[in-house]
Design brief:
The chain is of the alpha/beta class. Helix content is about 40%, strand content about 20%.
């Protein structure tokens, strides 16, 4: 049974989300500020985090909003850094959502939201992040080794842990080197429950390049196909 951490300062949001997620078969933890959320992440190692973008700070402490929490989770040591994050926000501006994705969120849900939609998003993101139980598989492209079973990437002896969305994009492109993928096709391969825009794909690709490319400004692996989208370099 997967454990979901809900981080939101509104008790009613936590109550409703907890009820629907528990009905969906999940164990639910809750935090109402960023400091408490980070403590729970370190102690309980949840399988997924539903994270409000706007969070208050406890009296006498520096503010830690949802962006700060996501950034600190991604900087933690070990597998916890890969914990899937769904950003929950009342902000409707696209730039706010892009910022969340750029710090490593896998998806976002805008308030007000349907609790059933939230459960569907949680299920979809957890499905993308599930590790296969089959015999270990690897995709090798020059110095880049994509370990499908362990869900990590090794480049020039440096192991990089990717978010589930980043890994899904890389695995799909690397499995068909040279194929030009449109942004819409990349969104489609993430599953029917993923609702993203062209710019959100660009944000995931930017994060992916920052982790696997020796020089993200001159990528060797994930290349831009101008006027189309992206492809994985076939010249390895």
């Amino acid at each position: 049974m997967a454990t979901v951490l809900i981080v939101d300062d509104e008790p009613e949001i936590i109550r409703v989300a907890r009820g629907y997620l528990e009905q969906g078969g999940y164990t639910v933890l809750a935090a109402r500020d960023g400091t408490a959320a980070l403590e729970i992440v370190r102690r309980e190692l949840p399988d997924l985090i539903v994270l409000d973008l706007n969070l208050p700070a406890p009296p006498g402490t520096p503010p830690i909003d949802g962006i700060d929490v996501a950034r600190q989770v991604r900087q933690m040591a070990g597998a916890v850094a890969q914990t899937p994050i769904i950003m929950l926000t009342a902000r409707v501006e696209e730039t706010d959502r892009i910022v969340g994705l750029e710090v490593g969120a896998d998806d976002y849900v805008a308030k007000p939201f349907s609790p059933r939609e939230l459960v569907a998003r949680v299920r979809a993101v957890l499905r993308r992040s599930a590790r296969p139980a089959a015999t270990p598989e690897q995709i090798v492209a020059g110095p880049l080794v994509i370990d499908v079973t362990r869900h990590h990437v090794k480049a020039d002896d440096q192991v990089d842990d990717l978010t589930p969305t980043e890994f899904a994009l890389l695995q799909a492109m690397a499995a068909e080197p040279g194929r030009a993928w449109t942004r819409s096709q990349l969104i489609d391969l993430l599953g029917p429950d993923y609702e993203g825009l062209d710019r959100t794909v660009d944000s995931h690709i930017k994060n992916l390049r920052a982790k696997i490319e020796p020089n993200p400004n001159q990528p060797r692996f994930v290349l831009t196909v101008f006027g189309v989208g992206y492809k994985f370099n076939e010249d390895f």
